[in-house]
Design a protein that fits this description.
The chain has an 8-stranded parallel β-barrel with strand order 1-3-4-5-7-8-9-10, surrounded by 5 helices. The protein has a two-stranded antiparallel ribbon with strand order 2-6. It contains 16 helices and 11 strands. The protein starts with a helix and ends in a 12-residue tail after the last strand. By secondary structure, it is α/β, with parallel strands linked by helices. Its cofactor is [4Fe-4S] cluster. One of its GO terms (molecular function) is iron ion binding.
């Protein structure tokens, strides 16, 4: 039994009325628990009643839990885009095959140049990102890429097409530490509507990726949904259900949850159900209270002022100085970005902002004590 089998037993649309039916008493019951929260508790924490009447209490609780578990450190990572070539046609993505623009796959020399530029920014936590194209950027390519990047990365992450258990196990021997794979949406109808061509149309294959990662013994797995693609209540309840499943079945695996809000993309895409700032705040607090051990990640999709406000609430990993185009650190402006960066501050500016909030930037991994001075 995989998580796909588990969630296929239910109608995920029923998550929305469950959330909407939560009362103040339900919220108070969830907040009274020290641990062992279930899906009903999470539903209460993301309900409208929680947002209207208890958000301040949730924020204080979330901050205290984060400081207790993670101290005052914030893990800094940087995405390195390997290619904008993709075989999928996804309605919301700038790299979709439907969009016509120059495509590229970085050479080993270009990757090394990117790594040198990234190290100069202070980063040793590198996230490899690629469009999904198995022919040009599949396992043969990754076998060449990882040994090069690992020379520059104390912590190496990937966000690429879903691979097999055997492939992940092999990449682990080449230095892979973590993998992020976002389900985009857990709603079958919405998933089918937005994935129009390519292997990504196979919802089961994608949703079972965290299972394969757990089986391969990958240290850390990142999951999440694209906020704005479907009803956020439905997708976030499904993410919480996924967290519970992973905790039960792959208890040695560390987990991360991200909050990617969809932005307009090449091809004219506009988010279908925009998620407000207050709901993002609520989600951060709800996930922290729901699972104290989760790494919570926020990218440069969000603007500077908003990031400075939400990071102390419970965020443990952020990017800064990011580029979402291949070769964007050594040769910026050559290719199309996957999405527009909204916090375009320098790394030093973001680190300084963290210090103002009495937080320390960690450029290795959250388990290290390596800090960067401003």
């Amino acid at each position: 039994m995989s998580f796909f089998d588990e969630i296929s037993k239910i109608d995920v649309d029923k998550f929305a009325p469950l959330v909407e039916s939560r009362t103040d008493a339900d919220v108070e019951r969830a907040l009274a628990k020290e641990d062992g929260l279930d899906l009903d508790d999470f539903a209460a924490l993301i309900s409208e009643n929680a947002r209207i009447h208890y958000l301040k209490e949730m924020a204080y609780r979330s901050m205290n839990l984060t400081r207790r578990r993670f101290g005052r450190t914030v893990n800094m990572y940087l995405p390195l885009y390997l290619t904008n070539l993709c075989s999928n046609r996804c309605a919301y993505c700038g790299f979709s095959t439907a969009n016509k623009f120059p495509r590229t796959v970085l050479t080993m020399q270009e990757i090394e140049e990117e790594c040198v530029a990234i190290n100069k920014l202070g980063y040793e936590n590198i996230l490899l990102v690629s469009g999904e194209n198995e022919r040009r950027a599949g396992m043969p390519y990754f076998r060449e890429v990882l040994p090069i990047v690992k020379k520059y990365a104390a912590f190496l992450q990937m966000e690429v097409q879903p691979l097999s258990t055997e492939d992940y196990a092999e990449l682990k021997t080449l230095g892979l530490d973590a993998v992020s794979v976002y389900q985009e949406t857990y709603h079958p109808g919405c998933y089918k509507k937005n994935h129009l061509a390519g292997k990504k149309m196979d919802m089961r294959w994608r949703m079972e990726t965290p299972d394969r990662l757990g089986q391969a013994g990958i240290d850390k797995v990142g999951i999440g949904a694209l906020l704005g693609l479907y009803d956020w209540k439905v997708d976030c309840m499904a993410v919480a259900m996924h967290v519970l499943y992973m905790r039960k079945n792959y208890w040695k695996t560390r987990l991360s949850v991200s909050f990617p809000r969809l932005r307009p993309a090449a091809g004219g895409f506009q988010p279908h159900t925009p998620v407000t700032d207050s709901k993002i705040i609520q989600l951060i607090c709800a996930f922290r209270i729901f699972d104290h051990e989760l790494d919570l990640t926020i990218s440069t999709r969000e603007g500077a002022e908003f990031r400075d406000m939400i990071i102390p609430l419970g965020i443990t990993a952020v990017s800064a100085g990011s580029s979402t185009e291949p070769g964007g650190y050594a040769h910026k402006g050559k290719y199309l970005e996957q999405w527009t960066v909204n916090d375009d501050r320098s790394v030093d500016e973001v680190v300084a902002a963290l210090h103002k909030n009495n937080l320390e930037a960690v450029f290795h991994d959250a388990s290290t004590t390596y800090f960067r001075a401003v």
